[in-house]
Every structure is written in structure tokens, then in C-alpha cells.
Write a structure and sequence with these properties.
The structure is a single chain. With 311 residues, the protein is mainly α. It contains 17 helices and no strands.
Length: 311
């Protein structure tokens, strides 16, 4: 085993490196606790859906608990997904400069230890899921099939970002499942809009590794779009805004939700204007900024839900 305190190349100076016990650091890195942005991006569609469903029902008494459960669930299930991704990608990660220092290729944990940690995280996620109704439980479990196949998609399709979108947007269904024990049209349209958003922001993220990916034969929309990335982002981000807008219209939202959507759209436009695909550091900053875009939309939906509940 190599030094468990050794840092991951693309994530330094965080609390895991400086404060966590040395023995825990490889596991925290496996679950990306040193890089929580992915958790936030997984969480945003969950919170959108929860707030939108609460606004439709006019009942917000259970919304704080739902928001809290989704928060915990997003952390552990994103961690489980990243652990699974690192297990399946351990050989590829060792060939990429940015990822070769991750815990498994760096020898900080064995595959068996990573699998045991994966099971532990999945069990915590199941405990969270069991707090919801039966329909929501089965809806949540259904997402695992997409999570399981995602790491292999970059080997066989130029559109792994679309599969990531299917997985990371699943929360757009979960709020409706938890509130109504069913899925309405607004939930499916919100899900589609979130998928378009994920394709956009993960294309930006993938430009960090485009050169290494080309050398080892890994596919991505960043490589597929290449110099056309700005135009592709206009398409996918515009589609995200339109579809989410349709979901809001179907849900008969009021003005705060529309303000949230306008702020979300403005943020996406700002990303496109700023993007330089040849600047990996900027790509990472713009990718991370999508947490703020998602929070802007959530804030509008939350205020809308409160206003409707108190009307």
C-alpha cells in the first residue's frame, strides 16, 4: 500500500487533506468528500422536484424533512456511485494524469476494500430511501441500473454524458414520487430538462481530459463536439431551460419560480460566454458554478411552494 495521506492531484488543500484522520482519507476520497460539487449537482434535481411537488400539493409541512433526507441520500449515493466508478475505471485512471493519484490506482486501498465501502454506503442510502413511501422506494431502486452501467459507457459511446444525465437527474422524479406516490407529466418533463442540463455541464467538465481521453481511446461529448462545443451548449442549455419551463407551466407555478428559472437561464448563458475549452482550470470553475445555477432555480421553486401553501 502507498501512503494513505498522499493527495489526489486534482483536489488539494481541502478538509480531507488537512483535517481528516489519515486512515479515513482514501475512503473519503473514493466517495469524493474532498470534492462535494458532484453531490450538489446530484442534489439539485431532487430539491427542484421536492419543492415543485410541494407547491402543487399545497402542503409544505413535510418539505424540510424531504429536503434533509435528499441531502443525506445524495451524499452517500454519490459516494457509492463514485466508488463504483473508481473500481471499474481503475486501469483507465492509472493512465490519466489527473486521475492516476486516486486511491485505487495509487494503491491506497484495494479493490476488495473499495467494494466493502461501496456496500456500506449503499446500505446507508437504503436506510434513507426506506423513510419514503413504497412507490418512492422502488423508484429510487430503479435508478441503480443506470448507475451500474454508466462507468462503461465512455468505452462504447460518444454520449456517456447522456447516460450520466439519466442517473444524475433521477432526483427530478423522486420529489413527485415522495409527495404523490406517482409520477406526473411535470416530473418527466423536469427530468428531461435536467438531463439536458447535465449533458451541458459535464461536457464542460470533460474538456479537462479531452487530450488524455483521445490518447487512451475514451469517448465523450467534449471530444465529439470539440470546436463546436459552444454551439452544442447553446442547444442543450436552451433545451434545459425550455423543458424546465414547460414543467413549471404544467405545475401552474407563480412568479417566484419564473424568476428562479430566468436567473438559472442567465447563469447558463454566462457560462457559455465565459467558456474557453482550452483552459482546463476555467472549465473546472464553470462546471462547479452549476451548483449556484441550480440553487437559483431551487430558491425560486421554494419561495413559490411557500407562497402557494399559505395562499
Amino acid at each position: 500500500m502507498s501512503d494513505v495521506a498522499a493527495r489526489v492531484a486534482d483536489s488539494t488543500g481541502n478538509w480531507v487533506d488537512t483535517r481528516a484522520p489519515a486512515w479515513s482519507r482514501p475512503y473519503l476520497r473514493l466517495s469524493r468528500f474532498d470534492r462535494p460539487i458532484g453531490t450538489w449537482l446530484l442534489l439539485m434535481p431532487c430539491w427542484w422536484s421536492a419543492a415543485l411537488a410541494a407547491g402543487i400539493s399545497g402542503h409544505i409541512t413535510s418539505l424540510p424533512l424531504t429536503i434533509a433526507l435528499f441531502f443525506v441520500g445524495a451524499f452517500v449515493m454519490r459516494g457509492a456511485g463514485c466508488t463504483w466508478n473508481d473500481i471499474t475505471d481503475r486501469d483507465l485512471d492509472g493512465k490519466v494524469e489527473r486521475t492516476r493519484s486516486r486511491p485505487i490506482p495509487a494503491g491506497q486501498v484495494s479493490v476488495a476494500q473499495a467494494l466493502a465501502f461501496l456496500v456500506l454506503q449503499a446500505l446507508i442510502g437504503l436506510a434513507v430511501l426506506l423513510q419514503f413511501n413504497r412507490f418512492a422506494i422502488f423508484t429510487g431502486i430503479a435508478s441503480l441500473a443506470i448507475v451500474a452501467i454508466y462507468p462503461f459507457m465512455k468505452r462504447i459511446t460518444w454520449w456517456p454524458q447522456a447516460v450520466l444525465g439519466l442517473a444524475f437527474s433521477w432526483g427530478a422524479l423522486m420529489g413527485f414520487a415522495a409527495e404523490f406516490a406517482r409520477l406526473d407529466a411535470a416530473a418527466f418533463v423536469l427530468y428531461a430538462g435536467s438531463i439536458s442540463w447535465v449533458i451541458g455541464y459535464d461536457t464542460i467538465y470533460a474538456h479537462q481530459d479531452a487530450e488524455d481521453d483521445a490518447l487512451i481511446g475514451v469517448k465523450s461529448t467534449a471530444r465529439l463536439f470539440a470546436a463546436r462545443t459552444h454551439r452544442a451548449l447553446v442547444v442543450f442549455y436552451s433545451l434545459a431551460v425550455v423543458l424546465i419551463g414547460v414543467a413549471l407551466w404544467l405545475s401552474a407555478v407563480r412568479w417566484p419560480a419564473w424568476i428562479g428559472l430566468v436567473a438559472f437561464a442567465a447563469h447558463l448563458g454566462w457560462q457559455i460566454r465565459r467558456l474557453d475549452t482550452g483552459n482546463p482550470a476555467l472549465c473546472l470553475r464553470l462546471f462547479r458554478s452549476n451548483r449556484d445555477a441550480g440553487l437559483l432555480l431551487f430558491a425560486g421553486l421554494l419561495v413559490d411552494a411557500v407562497l402557494r401553501a399559505n395562499a
